[in-house]
């Protein structure tokens, strides 16, 4: 009886799990600011609390936009960083403001999601 009740409750719950935030970087080949991001942030981002909160996903605008990002406008400038959670945009950084400002801006966006980055 308890097993049947647990099964019934489990079936009543939503089937889609809440997806974590991700940081989508829209880029183009030949983008000098994308290359600067790659040099300054690229080597360390995967080791940061921000990365654990919002893993980096790169989208090359020379190809088709992935289906799950169809509702997100990448804008005209590259790089453009968009924090996406559960399929919707939470915030964005237009361009690359340099390493001194990038993490501050990203932390402000992530704090609005209720998912503040872990401090390393």
UniProtKB/TrEMBL annotation:
Secretion signal, residue range per the UniProt entry: 1-20
Keywords for this protein: Signal
Name of the protein described by the UniProt record: Thioredoxin
Organism this protein belongs to: Bradyrhizobium nitroreducens
Lineage: Bacteria, Pseudomonadati, Pseudomonadota, Alphaproteobacteria, Hyphomicrobiales
């Amino acid at each position: 009886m308890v097993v049947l009740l647990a099964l019934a409750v489990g079936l009543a719950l939503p089937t889609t799990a809440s997806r974590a935030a991700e940081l989508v970087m829209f880029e183009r080949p030949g983008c000098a600011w994308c290359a600067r991001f790659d040099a300054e942030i690229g080597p360390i981002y995967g080791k940061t609390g921000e990365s654990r909160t919002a893993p980096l996903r790169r989208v090359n605008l020379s190809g088709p936009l992935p289906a799950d990002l169809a509702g997100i406008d990448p804008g005209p400038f590259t790089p453009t960083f968009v924090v996406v959670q559960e399929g919707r945009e939470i915030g964005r950084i237009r361009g690359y403001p340099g390493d001194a400002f990038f993490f501050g801006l990203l932390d402000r966006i992530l704090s609005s999601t209720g998912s503040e980055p872990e401090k390393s």
